[in-house]
UniProtKB/TrEMBL annotation:
It holds the Pfam family PALP. NCBIfam families: ilvA_1Cterm. Keywords: Amino-acid biosynthesis, Branched-chain amino acid biosynthesis, Isoleucine biosynthesis, Lyase, Pyridoxal phosphate. InterPro entries: ACT-like_dom_sf, ACT_dom, ACT_ThrD-II-like, Ser/Thr_Dehydratase, Ser/Thr_deHydtase_PyrdxlP-BS, Thr_deHydtase_catblc, TrpB-like_PALP, TrpB-like_PALP_sf. Coiled coil: none annotated. GO terms for molecular function: L-serine ammonia-lyase activity; pyridoxal phosphate binding; threonine deaminase activity. It comes from the Bacteria. Residues 328-403 form the ACT domain. This is Threonine deaminase. One of its GO terms (biological process) is L-serine catabolic process. Its cofactor is pyridoxal 5'-phosphate. Pathway: Amino-acid biosynthesis; L-isoleucine biosynthesis; 2-oxobutanoate from L-threonine: step 1/1. It catalyses: L-serine = pyruvate + NH4(+).
Length: 403
């Protein structure tokens, strides 16, 4: 594990640069989990993620000669912004290598912080390989997102802050990709209070660290696919795995559906915007992936809030359909005057609000003289949708549900 004094030194080093983010109580999650749940809002951090802590601590400890040639990093976005803003603070050049699939929001944000951005590779690991070669060729200092004692120590300051606010925490849930955050958090926790349970949470679409933890040896993945791009790491690093095996008490997985539900839950209930990786810890709580004693004090780290607006829109729309607050139906009508009006009157009686309607009379699947109506409706839940189905059946409409 990382020595506790190094984490305290990092806390002093970053004190005037990184924000001390709030640890807020969640009444909603507490009721669901029958425990006292607290959210560590690293989504409110400068650059929107905890990564600034480790990046700043590493760069602050570089020698003047190392700073002279600039720094380079590989990142899916959050580490990139942390390195960029930290380098800018010290007046040194930064280059960031990002996967080609990185959300535009993170690419733009990194460029706006003064970094040169190179898009290379399908995932973090391919970007990483390119960045290492680029660093050697140009004699630059490589700022690793998780395989570095100073970076890990910086991330460990999250745990110190939480204990400053609540010194008797029983457990902490930590999103895990490469393992830098949980390595720092677990190192600090186990040296201050070994009884604090540390639980790692990874995405099922990026299972390498989870499987490595369960098998107690490195198990890399062939590929990764998850909406939690911040923890979409394909290969496991030996240093971080060693710390995780030493200090982490449990490890669970959440799938994309569970992560999306957590993103929507935090948005609706707490008015908090988080990215997929940031919602992983809450997804584990919502779906009860682990057991805690009644009234335990549990902290869930919201590691970042830099979600692409298009992804957020998809999550919201899918969430509304899953929660029976929207539905889409296809209705076959006789194509004559008044037929559509009769249908909308029936929907009005059901108190369903039409948000979109399409009228097709040319489909080869239709009989001559028929028209196909596609209607998207706002509804008030499952029972309301059942009432709507009943009314349509009573009116003898031929209909099917799309979503």
């Amino acid at each position: 594990m990382i020595e506790l004094n190094k984490i305290y030194q990092a806390k002093q080093k970053i004190a005037d640069f990184a924000l001390k983010t709030p640890l807020s109580h969640s009444h909603f999650l507490s009721d669901i989990c029958n425990a006292k749940i607290y959210l560590k809002n690293e989504n409110l951090q400068r650059t929107g993620a905890y990564k600034i802590r480790g990046a700043y601590n590493k760069i602050a400890n570089l020698s003047e000669s190392q700073k002279k040639n600039g720094v380079i990093a590989a990142s899916a976005g959050n580490h990139a912004q942390g390195v960029a803003i930290s380098a800018k603070n010290f007046g040194i050049k930064s280059t960031i290598v990002m996967p080609e699939s990185t959300p535009l929001l993170k690419v733009s944000a990194t460029k706006n912080l003064g970094a040169e951005v190179i898009l290379k590779g399908d995932n973090f690991d391919e970007s990483y390989d390119f960045a290492i070669k680029y660093a050697r060729k140009n004699n630059m200092s490589f700022i690793h997102p998780f395989e570095d004692d100073l970076v890990i120590a910086g991330q460990g300051t999250v745990m110190l802050e939480m204990l400053d606010d609540i010194n008797d925490l029983d457990a902490v849930l930590v999103p895990v990709g490469g393992g830098g955050l949980i390595s720092g958090v677990a190192s600090a926790a186990k040296q201050i209070n070994p009884d604090i349970k540390i639980v790692g949470v990874s995405a099922k679409g990026a299972p390498a660290m989870y499987e490595s933890y369960k098998n107690k040896k490195i198990k890399n993945s062939k590929s990764v696919r998850t909406i939690a791009d911040g923890i979409a790491v394909r290969d496991v690093n030996a240093k971080n795995l060693d710390i995780i095996l030493e200090c982490v008490d449990d490890f669970v997985q959440v799938d994309d559906e569970e992560i999306a539900e957590a993103v929507l839950f935090l948005l609706e209930k707490h008015k908090i915007i988080v990215e997929g990786a940031g919602a992983a810890s809450v997804a584990a709580l919502l779906h009860k992936k682990m057991k805690f004693k009644k009234d335990s004090k549990i902290a869930a780290i919201l590691s970042g809030g830099n979600i692409d607006v298009q992804m957020l829109n998809i999550i919201i729309e899918k969430g509304l359909f899953k929660a029976h607050r929207k539905m889409q139906i296809m209705v076959t009508l006789i194509d004559k005057p008044g037929a559509l009006l009769d249908l909308t009157d029936s929907l009005k009686k059901a108190n369903a609000n039409i948000v979109k309607i399409d009228y097709d009379r040319f489909s080869t699947k239709l009989d001559y003289g028929d028209a196909m109506i596609s209607i998207t409706l706002e509804t008030k839940g499952f029972e309301h949708q059942e009432e709507l189905r009943k009314i349509l059946k009573e009116k003898a409409y031929k209909f099917s549900e799309i979503l």
